[in-house]
C-alpha cells in the first residue's frame, strides 16, 4: 500500500522540520545530557514504530513487499525483522561516529554548527539510502546470485575492518568529492557562521562547513554499501529494510553528540562489529541451505555487541592496573 510509504515519509519530513525550524532554530552547542535525552526519545519512537509494524503485518495491512512472500510474513516475524535490522544499522553506525568526529576535527567545525551539518547530511542520506534499498531489492529479486555477492562482500568488509588500522582512510583530504568541489568552487579559509556559501565581491564562495557536509555525505555512501546489504540478510521486504534503516539514521545525530567523546573507551566494540558483519554475511551465504531465524539473529547480534562493551569495561588497557 503506497499510503504507508507516503505516511512514513511524511512522518520523517515532519520530524526533521520540527527539529530544524523549532527545536534547533537557533544554533547552540548540544551537551551530553540533551543528546542522551534525544537518543532515548529516538529509540522509543523506533520501538513504538515496531509495535505498529506488528499490528499492521498481523492484519495484512502491509502486504507491500516486492517479493511474493512479503504478504505472508506474520506480525511477530515482521516485528523481529524490523528490530533486528534496526539494531544492525544502529550498531554499524557506531563506526560512522568516529568518521564524523575526524571530519569535524579536520575542518575545525565549531560544536555550535555541527548539528546543522549533520542535519543536512542525514537529509541527503535518507534520499541516497532510499535509492540503494530500492535498487538492491530489485537486483536480488531479478538476480538471486547477488545475495551471495552481498554476503561475500560483508565477510570481506569484516576482515578488512579487523586488520585495518584505526586511523586508516580517516584523512578527509584524500576524499575524491572534496578534491572535485575545490576545483569547482573557490573556498574561504575561515568559517562564516552556519553558512555553507557566502558572496564576496560578487563571487560565490564555499565555506569549510560546506566541504565538511560534502565529505560526510560521501562517507555515508560508503557506510551504506556495508549496512544496507547487512539488513538484506535479515529481510528482503523493502518497507522493513527502509524503515529500520531510516529510523536508525534519524537518531544518529543525537547519538554522535552523546557518544563521540566516549567511544574511545569501548575499544573492543570494533571487534564486536567485525563479528556482527561476518555473521550477517555468512547468514546471507547459507540462506538457501539453512535459514537462521530472526529471533536467533537478534539474540546473537545483541550478545556480540554486549560482549564488546562489557569486555571494554572489564579488561584494563595495557599498562593500566
How is this structure best described in words?
- With 321 residues, the protein is an all-alpha fold.
- The protein has one domain (2-314).
- It is built from eleven helices and two strands; from the N terminus they run H-H-H-H-H-H-E-E-H-H-H-H-H.
- A two-stranded antiparallel sheet has the order 1-2.
- Strand 1 (197-200) and strand 2 form a beta hairpin.
- The chain is globular and about 65 Å long.
- Residues 64-71 have low confidence and may be disordered.
Show the helix and strand layout.
Layout: H1 2-23, H2 32-58, H3 75-106, H4 111-142, H5 146-163, H6 176-184, E1 197-200, E2 203-206, H7 208-232, H8 238-250, H9 252-259, H10 269-285, H11 294-314
Antiparallel strand pairs: 1-2
Helix pairs in contact: 2-3, 2-8, 2-9, 3-7, 3-8, 3-9, 3-10, 3-11, 4-7, 4-8, 5-7, 5-10, 6-7, 7-10, 10-11
Amino acid at each position: 500500500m503506497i499510503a504507508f510509504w507516503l505516511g512514513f515519509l511524511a512522518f520523517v519530513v515532519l520530524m526533521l522540520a520540527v527539529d530544524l525550524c523549532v527545536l534547533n532554530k537557533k544554533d547552540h552547542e548540544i551537551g551530553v545530557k540533551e543528546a542522551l535525552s534525544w537518543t532515548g526519545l529516538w529509540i522509543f519512537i523506533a520501538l513504538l514504530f515496531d509495535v505498529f509494524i506488528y499490528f499492521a503485518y498481523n492484519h495484512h495491512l502491509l502486504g507491500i513487499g516486492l517479493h511474493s512472500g512479503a504478504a505472508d510474513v506474520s506480525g511477530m516475524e515482521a516485528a523481529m525483522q524490523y528490530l533486528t535490522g534496526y539494531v544492525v544499522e544502529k550498531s554499524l553506525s557506531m563506526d560512522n561516529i568516529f568518521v564524523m568526529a575526524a571530519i569535524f576535527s579536520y575542518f575545525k567545525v565549531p560544536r555550535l554548527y555541527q548539528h546543522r551539518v549533520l542535519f543536512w547530511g542525514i537529509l541527503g542520506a535518507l534520499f541516497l539510502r532510499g535509492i540503494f534499498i530500492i535498487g538492491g531489492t530489485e537486483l536480488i529479486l531479478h538476480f538471486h546470485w547477488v545475495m551471495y555477492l552481498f554476503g561475500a562482500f560483508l565477510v570481506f568488509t569484516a576482515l578488512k575492518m579487523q586488520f585495518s588500522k584505526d586511523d586508516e582512510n580517516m584523512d578527509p583530504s584524500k576524499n575524491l568529492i572534496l578534491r572535485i568541489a575545490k576545483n569547482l568552487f573557490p573556498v574561504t579559509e575561515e568559517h562564516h557562521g552556519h553558512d555553507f556559501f557566502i558572496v564576496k565581491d560578487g563571487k560565490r564562495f564555499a565555506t569549510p562547513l560546506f566541504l565538511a557536509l560534502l565529505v560526510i555525505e560521501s562517507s555515508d555512501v560508503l557506510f551504506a554499501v556495508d549496512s544496507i546489504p547487512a539488513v538484506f540478510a535479515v529481510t528482503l521486504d523493502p518497507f522493513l529494510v527502509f524503515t529500520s534503516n531510516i529510523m536508525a539514521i534519524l537518531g544518529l545525530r543525537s547519538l554522535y553528540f552523546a557518544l563521540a567523546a566516549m567511544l574511545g573507551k569501548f575499544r573492543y566494540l570494533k571487534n564486536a562489529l567485525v563479528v556482527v558483519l561476518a555473521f550477517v554475511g555468512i547468514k546471507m551465504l547459507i540462506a538457501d541451505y539453512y535459514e537462521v531465524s530472526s529471533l536467533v539473529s537478534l539474540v546473537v547480534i545483541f550478545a556480540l555487541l554486549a560482549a564488546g562493551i562489557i569486555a571494554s569495561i572489564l579488561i584494563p588497557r595495557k599498562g593500566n592496573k
